[in-house]
Queue: 2 jobs
Job 1
Amino acid sequence: MASPRHRSSEKSLTFKININRIHHQSNNCNNWIKKDFENICTELGECPLCASIHSFSFKRLEYVWKWDVSIPQQWQYGDWESIKLFPVHVPLPIVRCEACGKYFRVEPEFLIKGTILTVPALVFVVFTYP
Ligand SMILES: [Zn+2]
């Protein structure tokens, strides 16, 4: 008899951490990383759950990894060695609404929408993924 499938144990690995999200209108990764996250709450609007204004307080930072592509400004077709793909450690502030007590993860827009690939970047991806 074939070995049984462990469907239940597979399922237990896919649990999801349930935290609310707030979007931040930041579409540039480099500017985002340089931010003073202790003061991020001054840039947030109202709480999506209880509609309080300026009720957030900064708690801590979490991080995610994101791939970025670096292409020189005067890049010429065929110059593949000057293109670099590198990981970026992107901070995501965790804030708490002091009015309703809920926690939120602040996510910048560039993470949600994804990186816009230029034509050279797209060509690069095609060449490096056979
Ligand atoms: Zn609230």
Job 2
Amino acid sequence: MKRTFDTALITSCVAAVAAVACTLAEPLDAEGSKRRPNTNTGEVNANDTDTSGTRIETATGLPCDVDAILKTRCQTCHGSEPQFGASAPLVTWDDLQKPGPGAYANKKVYELVKERIADDARPMPPSPQPRLTSDERATIEKWIASGAESSPATCTNEAPKDGVKPLSCKPDQVLKASRPYSLKPDGPTDQYVCFGVDVNVPKKRHVIGLAPLVDNKQIVHHILLFRTNKAVSPEPFECDAFGSAAWTLVAGWAPGGDNLELPKEAGFPEEAGTTHWVLQIHYNNSNTKTGSDQSGYELCTTEDLRPHDASVLAFGSTKFDIPPRATHTIRCDYRLDKRFEGVKFFNASPHMHVLGQSMSTERLPGGNGTPETIFEQKNFSFEAQANYPIDKSVAPGDVIRTRCTWKNPGDTRVGFGEGTGDEMCFNFIGYYPAIPDRTILGLPVFTWVTPSHSASCTVE
Ligand code: HEC
């Protein structure tokens, strides 16, 4: 069943960026920006971690080459206490000989490993992590083919990455629900919970760093942070997986993803008054786990304003029609007008729903120059949306081209909307200096959604 998109709703959400509260924040240091992963591919660089380079000596019963791959590519989630929705520890030879967890009990864990590293539909590691290289895959497959035997070796390998890297500024604001949320013991595998946080400030501030606060790592699978122009309940409530089309995505985190630090020149403004934030938390494998969680986001804000306000614009499209049983790609062009003089793009948060396969955004200098990649995510996964630092200057006359590809296995056409059966094609781009919203006769004419609303699209 298809819900059509409510244009009144979209035009009513003028507030791409509004306002927030608090105390002192330290500025980012040079080290902070150096540590931002330098990628525009949408793939998290598995080696870009605080713990990378830390080598540890272990005897796990596994041959050292297999142990090395499991440590760096699997154990962030499949450690001895699995987290972020994974169930099976993949640390020792014993772990791999056990029967699989829950419904997988008819197979041994190493057999599941063999399947999942080769499974294009449900790959391990999951998106947005890069797949194993062919060498890594061959190493594991060879070991399994020769009997998955144990090894007495003591190995010195890189330690697994341990969670999100800390912000280089001092967080002074915490966005959390008013109380912890307890998982429903017999609930669905995937549970989505939303809540709002209103922040009041007497004087304008800039948000310069944002990091996820992952509370119960056993069950939290991903966190999205939005801004909106209306207050949303601070009590955690079960919500639609897709949130609301009136919410602007600012940042997102999935296991292996990172925080968001703004370039030195800009901050998301917190005008004096109230800013409305909304968080959505996705719990995975929650039917087999119990427990409660109070995850959120923490922000560094400062009264020492930076030269520019930052904001968010959605490139992509709000008009498309995905045919049944098809892989469908649209290419949408939006020409930048004179307000984009001196604008820089610094973050990309791609957003589609479950049919989403890939997304890319390019800049065509002058409108017809050679396309330059701004951002590309070849393996989009609804289950693992995150934000990715980018660094691109744009100019008036440039065309910003966004491609979205979906795979629709169903028998019905799918269009734009916020419902379960609908799709989206938004690349939320963080940029500065912010372009003020405009109104004509009291009606908003330039808001965060304008670039996707007025893009011209062709089917590829
Ligand atoms: C970013 C976190 C993450 C990483 C890294 C990761 N996995 Fe997983 N894995 C999951 C989640 C979440 C599930 C449960 C959902 C599913 O089955 O897709 C899972 C499920 C599995 C399962 C099924 C058993 C279970 O625990 O539910 C296997 C087998 C598996 N992963 C193997 C691997 C292997 C092998 C690697 C490394 C090459 C890897 N995974 C890396 C998150 C991760």
